Amino acid sequence: MKRGFGGASGASIAALALLWAISFGAAGCYDSENCAETFSCEPPPASPPPCAGDPATTPAKEECGVFVARHGDDARAGTRQEPVRTLQHAVQKALLEGKPHVYACAEDFHEAVRLPSGVEIWGGRACEREDWAFLGADHPTVVAPPAGRVPVRVHAHGAVLSDLFSSDPRSLLFGVRVVAADAIEPGGSSIALIVTDDAEVEVRWSEIFAGNGAPGAPGEDAPLDVAEPGARGNHGAAACSEDLVDGALPAVTLCPDGSASIGGRGGFGDRDAGGGGENGAVIERDPALAPLVGGQGGKGVAGTDACGAGEAGQDGAAGASGEGGEQKAARASAEGWHGAWGEAGTPGTIGRGGGGGGGTRGRGVCASTEPQGGASGGSGGGGGCGGRGGGAGQAGGSSIGILTVGAEVVVEHSWIAVGMGGDGGRGGRGQAGGYGWPGGIGGAAGMNDRGQVEYACEGGHGGRGGPGGGGGGGLGGYSLAVARVHGGIDLKESTFVALDEVGRGGASGGSDPRLGRGDDGLAQEIWSLEQLIEPPR
User: Where is the composition biased (Low complexity) (predicted)?
Assistant: First the structure.
């Protein structure tokens, strides 16, 4: 038996035809006048927004955008025949008029642009032609402001563009070459594109070029002259000048940081014995700290023992070298890149004062008609002040193609090329500590058997101040295609990335170059920091 419609009745064929018609109507019955009777009508497909389309092929429409050319004038209407002159004015005009596009000539614009989400720059246009057609990726619109400025910043905007054009909050850079100049300020970075504030941007058929980061400034060197010297010890008084001859007064060194070094007082001179000298001391910068003992005071004459000289005070401690800038301390924010500086060196401590010299007795030296006191000892010399620390080396500037902070960025069919990171600044050199001064000599104690003048004992020499520590070197600059802070970045396979050399870490200002050297920078396609941490001010 042949299978087919031949064996079916007319009623069956009619029923099949009805079913086919209903099925056809369900698939697209908006063209049928009767689909409403079967409750199977669907709305026609939504027509695309009048301003949507591929920037490479879609005609430039005056109702969809503002036209900008170097020969234009910002007082004009922004049409094909009357373009405005600056990109920033075109962007603001498009935003105010609810137009999603800026049609930009394939020319150089030496200005920086702030682009709100939802506004697109369609670059590379042939503005000498009536249709302002796209010339191709090899004829881009160039955005190249002077050094020190970020060429393009994209940020979210509260205003919503007219629903007539687009409900897409994304911005688009198409046919645009963004060029950041080499940084010239010490430690300055060259960043081509910054995207912040939950903005969304797509970079397509464009070029993102960042220049070289600038070297960091060196830390300030402490003064070349040695720090303030100690105070000279005072001399003791001669025998037979008083019945009790007081020891020489303490010598006191006062340093700019508030610390003080005290030479011990000299021992007194009495008729039958000499007093011992007092110990030297140091009063720290922090008045809450107890004074530190310096050189021991010398003993005075007692019995057959001669007097003793005061001991020298100890030298001050050297200041610590500052730490170098570390990679882990690098930060980025909407303000830009924040490399890690080194730390300043700490100052050296003051030298301790020398001990006072011992005194002598007056018996057998002084005539009966004279006062009977012996000669007093000289006071210890004051210690020298500690040297100042060297300043911190500044971080080298970085070269960054795209910095995105809390935003979403997609890059395709584009080129990101960045320059070299700047070297970190060296740390400043510390200052040499001040010299301690000698103690005072003892007073004249009489003549010996050989006819020579003898003296009470001298005070000890003050200690030298410790040298200041060298400053730490700054972190070297980075060479980054993208620096991302808790946002999204999608570099498509069609995107070409070129990195350059990193900046070297700055040398330490201390005597040992291994201590306090800054870390070298990094070269990466994508550097990420998951949490925004505000850098120190």
Answer: 330-347
* Inter-residue contact 488 to 408 (CB < 8 Å): yes
Euclidean distance between CA atoms 70 and 143, whole angstroms: 12
pLDDT at 447: 83
- Please list, in sequence order, all residues whose beta carbon lies within 8 angstroms of the beta carbon of residue 457, skipping any fewer than 6 positions away: 267, 277, 298, 306, 307, 308, 309, 310, 357, 358, 359, 377, 378, 442
pLDDT tens figures, 416-444 = 999 999 999 999 999 999 999 999 999 99
Angle at 203 between CA 198 and CA 209, to 5 degrees: 105
Let me know: does 382 contact 261? Beta carbons within 8 Å: yes
Is the Cβ–Cβ distance between 440 and 379 less than 8 Å?
yes
Question: In this structure, is residue 511 part of a structural domain?
Answer: yes
CB 214 within 8 A of CB 187: yes
Report yes or no on 228 lying in a domain: no
Tell whether 436 is covered by a domain.
no
Domain count, the chain: 1
Domain for residue 483, yes or no? yes
Contact between 526 and 479 under an 8 Å Cβ cutoff? The reply is: no
Instruction: State residue 2's pLDDT score.
Output: 32
CA distance 102 to 98: 11
Structural domain that includes position 165: 65-219+394-426+474-529
Q: Alpha-carbon distance 480 to 372, whole Å?
A: 86
Distance (Å, whole) CA 163 – CA 144 = 33
- The pLDDT tens digits for 519-531 are 999 999 999 986 5
More confident residue, 246 or 514: 246
Provide the whole-model pTM: 0.81
